Each structure stands twice: as C-alpha cells, then as structure tokens.
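Hey, quick one: can you model this chain's 3D structure?
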Amino acid sequence: MLDALDQPQVLAAERDFIIVYKPPRMHSAPLPKAATENSPKTLLDFCTKIFPEVNELSGRRAGEGGLIHRLDYETQGLMLLGRSEKGMENLLAQQEEKKISKYYSAIAGVPAELLPGFPPEPDAPLGSIASAFRSYGKGRKAVRPVLDGGAIYTTEILGKKELFPGLALLEIMIFKGFRHQIRSHLAWLGHSILNDSLYGGSAHGKGLLALRAFSLSFIDPSSGSPLSYSIPILELDML
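Sure thing. Here's the predicted structure for all 239 residues.
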C-alpha cells in the first residue's frame, strides 16, 4: 500500500533486488550533464541514501548504479533495482530475454487528429503495436515511431475499459522500454494520455500524467521462483 503518491517509497528490499515506488515529476537517475550540486533529486539518490551498496554496482550506464530500467520524469509507479552484483547481472539478463514483465495503467482520450511526424495510424486499434523510434521536435524532447529500421520495441494493450465517452482506462504491458514508448505508441493509435501535452493529451485535474507502472513480474535471482509486485491501478481522482 502506498503512503503518499508524491513521495518515493521502498516496497520491498531483498538480498538481490529492491522494489521502489517513483512518484510523478521525479527523474529516475541524474541527468547526464547536470552539475552534481545543482541537479534535481532523483529516485536513485533516494535509494542510495538507504541502500548505499546500490551505488557501487556496475549499472547499465555510468552513474546509474542498480537501475534495471527507468520511468519517465512524469510517469509514476514501480521500479526495479539490483542490490547485489549477482542480482544486477541476473536481472539485466532477464530484461534482455523478455522475462521481466512491466504492467501499466493509462487513462487516455481521443485527439482530434494524428499529430505531425507520425506514420499513418495502424490498422488495428488495440492489441500489439511495435516500432523503432526517433527523436522529434524542438530540443528532441519527443519521439516518433519508425517503421523502416532500428531496434524494435513492442507495446501490448491488454484491455480497454470505457470510463466516459471518449475516455478509456487501458492496461498495457511491455518487456523492454524506450523513452516515451507507451506515450508515443498510444498517441499513434489515437489514444493520447490525459495531461500529456507532448503527445496531444487533454488537460485534467492537477495535471499529473495519467500513466502508472502498477505491476512488475520477474524471477528471483537467488531462488529462481517467479515474483510479482503490484500497487493499485490509476484512477481519475489521483490526477
């Protein structure tokens, strides 16, 4: 159970891994060019103060410590970190082998038209959608799907529940993610996430992005047993 939606929280701490809730509007890791003394506090900062051993791990990139994956600055939800070298190596291998399942809930509306820079809208409105990505727009802040080359990232839309006319709750699963993958893929399908101004989403409530990583499933690096951790899915009154 989460104590507060705007504060990071440790939900599980085992020998080889940690499960942490990242609130919205917090970076997962330090920005590459940010000065240390002036850089915003990150989820990794929060974790390393409690578990300093995380910072000693050989991460995916320099300065990323035990991070197995990231969440966007605006996105809230569960993150998985390695706590030992054995755990880190095993979990990174699981991610490459598509053995870590990441489940998201999103509340999305329907934009008036497809945003500039997207390929033609896919034929299938729901289901599996896959593409490579390219940076797009001013400051290269957004991404757009690419159909003619590059590493392929897949977004599985597992279910859709109508909340109101033109507004739906979507359940989504990915294995390995790209920056803004879900946000861009949903906009491509015509389901821009609420409060996602970068991808045509409508404004609602306090303005929090309506995207939550609510569940993680993977294999315990030590025991080999399947594990799953979850928090409640997103609701409109949380935004």
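One thing worth noting: The chain has three helices and ten strands.
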